[in-house]
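Sample intake sheet
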Amino acid sequence: MTLQTPMTELESIELARAYVALSNAHRVELILPMFAAEAVYISSALGEFSGPRAIGDMMQGFFTRYPNVFRLAENFRFSHGRVTFDFGLQASAVDSGEQLQRQGVEHIEFDGQGLIIKLEVQASMGLDSAGTGKPGR
């Protein structure tokens, strides 16, 4: 039996940074192994997804619709057993040219093996290309 040393705050923050970098590169095949089998992804804009397969399908669909999506993440911090950071996101829909802009906060919880068990995105209202303030999709 191997005893695991709990992840440090710095290790947790660096794993969160790696997740963001892979997400910005749209590397779903490298992101999915970061999720535990029982992982949950909760987004105020997109809904709730359980398990790596559902999470991967959601991500791939989002990256297909918004191929130029990029998220600027900053102010990474560790508190209450999870990593939290602020983000700004910009993208254009490939089919309509619709502009998507969001800001918000993201929380990532890891298990003892460094796998993501819960990822929560709290996004502000997105602005569409008309600037109407419709929720981002």
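Comment: Residues 127-137 have pLDDT under 50 and may be disordered. The first strand starts at residue 35 and ends at 43.
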